[in-house]
Design brief:
Blueprint: E1 2-10, E2 13-14, E3 17-18, H1 19-36, E4 40-47, E5 58-64, H2 67-75, H3 77-89, E6 90-99
Length: 100
């Protein structure tokens, strides 16, 4: 099983909206991928992260059966649509993938 965790800090304003609105939009878009990309085993998105260090605004946790499934998810056209939005609103990104 591959775990994929991503943490973003968002810009104060982007795409005509503030940080809070963009965080909720990201949550909606990312969670929708669970119904669109069959290789996703689990997906959760958190916003309003409490006292994280370093600070972050949105966290994605997802799980995949294999590295090949994670690669398929990352290349999937629906994921790439979300990536395009995220790139416009994110100021920074951290990611970790690990196998259990």
């Amino acid at each position: 099983m591959i775990k994929h965790i991503v943490m973003w800090t968002l810009k104060d304003e982007a795409e005509g909206a503030g940080k809070a609105a963009n965080a909720l939009r990201m949550k909606e878009l990312l969670e929708a991928l669970g119904g669109l990309i069959p290789v996703i085993r689990e997906i959760e998105v958190g916003v309003g992260v409490f006292a994280a260090s370093p600070a972050c605004d949105v966290i994605l946790y997802s799980a995949f059966a294999s590295r090949a499934d994670l690669d398929a998810y990352q290349a999937h056209p629906e994921h790439q649509k979300v990536v395009a939005f995220v790139k416009q609103v994110a100021a920074s990104r951290s990611v970790v993938d690990y196998e259990i």
